[in-house]
C-alpha cells in the first residue's frame, strides 16, 4: 500500500492517479498522436496517460508547457524551475515541487536554495535574484491581482529584464494551473 506524502522533498515521489490512465496498447490513434508530443522520450508517466483521456487538451497542454519551460531566451531554465517551485509550494503540490526542485538542483549543482525554501518558505534566505523570483511566483499563485508595481520593481532591482519577467509570469501561471490539476487527478505517494 502507498502512503500520501504531505511534506516537501527533492526526492521525486510516485503518483497515484484517481482517474484511470489510458493503456498504451488500447490507445486510439488520436491519443497516440497526442502522446507523441510529450516532453520525455522515455517512459510515458501515469500523469500524461491520464491527460490522454482528453486528447484536445493534451495536444495543447504539452506544446504550451514545452514553450514556457524549455524555450530559449528570456529567463534561464533553472530560474523557470525556481518559479515552478514557488507556485507549487504555495499551492501545496508536493509532487510538482519535488520534480522542479530536483531539476533546479541538477541544473545549478546547488541544493541550498531548495533546502532553504522547503524549510522556511517565503522567509527562506536566498540571494536577491532568487528571492525576487520565488516571492513573485508565490504572490502570483496566491492572488495574481495583488501583484503590484513595487513587485515588478523588485524584480527589476534584482536584475530581471522584461523578457525574463514575462517568462517568470508564464511559468508561475502555468504551475498555478498544473498544481490544481495534479491535486484533482491524483496524489504524491511513497510506494
UniProtKB/TrEMBL annotation:
Keywords: Oxidoreductase, Peroxidase, Plasmid. GO terms for molecular function: peroxidase activity. InterPro entries: AhpD-like, AhpD_core, CMD-like, Uncharacterised_peroxidase-rel. The keyword Cell inner membrane does not apply. Residues 57-125 form the Carboxymuconolactone decarboxylase-like domain. It comes from the Bacteria. Pfam families: CMD. The keyword RNA-binding does not apply. NCBIfam families: ahpD_dom, peroxid_rel. This is Peroxidase-related enzyme.
